[in-house]
Amino acid sequence: MDKEQHQSKDESMAHGSSNNSPTQPFEPLTMNESKRVPNLRWFVIIMSHLVLFSVTVVVSSLSLTIVAMVRVEAKSSEEAEAECMKYCNGSYTAMISEISSESLKYHVSWSETEKDYMLEAVFWGALISSPIGGRIGELLGPRRSVSLCLIAISVLNLLFAPAALINYWVAFVIRLVQGIGQGIVMPSLYVVVSRWSTDHERTLSNAVVQSGIAMANIVVHPFVGLLISNESANNWPSIFYYISLLNLAVFCFWYLIVYDFPETHPYLSKEELDYIALNRSFKPGVSKIVPWTRLMSSPPVIAYLCVSFTYGWLISTVSTQIPSFYKEILGLSFEANGLLNALPWILSLIISLTAGYAADRVCRTSSVSLTKLRKLLAFLGLGSGSIGILLITCYDWDKKSIVSLVTLSKGFATLNIAGPGTSHLDISPSYAGTLAGIYNLFFNLSALIMNHSVATIVGDYPTQQKWFTFFRLTSGLNIIGLILFIIMGSAQVQPWDPSYEPSPVNFATPLNLDFNYQANMNTFQHTNEN
């Protein structure tokens, strides 16, 4: 009976058109409706979150593990503490310093320069692949591209520990290739968001995926610290084995749950498929040629990439440099430093998810344009982050006040995720992965430049004034990025994107419902037939 009603609906929708009536919507597989999974799109989004979580754990875990990897028998307790501050943000130093040379069954003899290069290798790899990583996901399909990268990252992580013990450069190449994989995985996840999320769930979906980074930074240091301090964990090599198993497990669930398109998923209900197709900006069908000239000269894209650079600078400062400021200028203990370094990430996680939900709700229930909402969130996020960092330099604050300002600056700056951080999905649903890859390129590039700027401005003899000069630079850069986004930013699909419509309708209405439904489904069928 339901099938007859559905066919009747299709016939009535085609009535009045030419004799060649539109084909019926794509039916993924024939199976009982009882086997369909309700709200499957959110399972897909959560799996994207877990993928980003797992690859971020691979990247972040080495910063703490490297302290246990290197010979410690010749180091004093002060040297060990200084090394942990440099490479792992002061987290769990007490655990590391208690490890004796006898308990370290394996160790490497790397110089300070070699350790720096090893930690940067994954970022250089991401710089290599980020510009094309999103496009690979769009053409190959995020299901396959992410799966292949997860397998490669997992296997290489299993090989890293023995490689590090045998040859430095072999281990370096392993980290470099893992970075290349990460540069493909991250933008490919936003291809999933573009295809699976509706317009009025887009911001929250993006926030859920990106929160994988914050979650990884909250979890990884306690996890690694406990493994290193556990005598039965076979010391530091076991860290890489456990993380490899995590990535392999995520791969298995990813491949089982995630499909490239909602239209091809065997467990997606007909009702949810219709709901997604009717309420997303993305139009099925991938253009084989990216309009690079129009894309890179588009003012909204320029504004989006400027914010990616300045926001990346701010986030990298809080992640990698603020702990050194805490120790060198504020004189905070290592134990307190490790805890305080987690606070900005915890607040960021809460704010990003809350802002994502609130932004989508405002879009559904008010007449505020999406462009104005994105700019307001940029103002609140980048503005508060810049002012908070700048205020540190303006008054003689006590330690608690400075820590509070840093935490609030990082936390509220995360409003950027619900603002400019969703622009790749707004302005170009068809090339969301491509834009996210370029975003990742600028983000990582800013992190590398920021680290070298700290080395130049603060140097080997840090003072409060040197740090304050760097903070003013950080604040100024983010204000520039904010101004550019307010002037040139947009949340409208751009004319050079295949999903562009001259009179775009953000959400389904009684007047455009039938048209959008047939347009989405027929385009998908035509693409697959070709």
TrEMBL record:
Residues 1-30 are annotated as: Disordered. Residues 15-24 have a biased composition (Polar residues). It is found in: Membrane. GO terms for cellular component: membrane. SUPFAM superfamilies: MFS general substrate transporter. One of its GO terms (molecular function) is symporter activity. Coiled coil: none annotated. It is a multi-pass membrane protein. Residues 49-493 form the Major facilitator superfamily (MFS) profile domain. Its main location: membrane. Residues 1-13 have a biased composition (Basic and acidic residues). PANTHER family: FI19708P1-RELATED, SOLUTE CARRIER FAMILY 17. This is Major facilitator superfamily (MFS) profile domain-containing protein. GO terms for biological process: monoatomic anion transport. Keywords: Membrane, Symport, Transmembrane, Transmembrane helix, Transport. The chain crosses the membrane at residues 42-70, 117-134, 146-166, 172-192, 204-227, 239-258, 301-322, 342-363, 375-395, 438-458, 470-491.
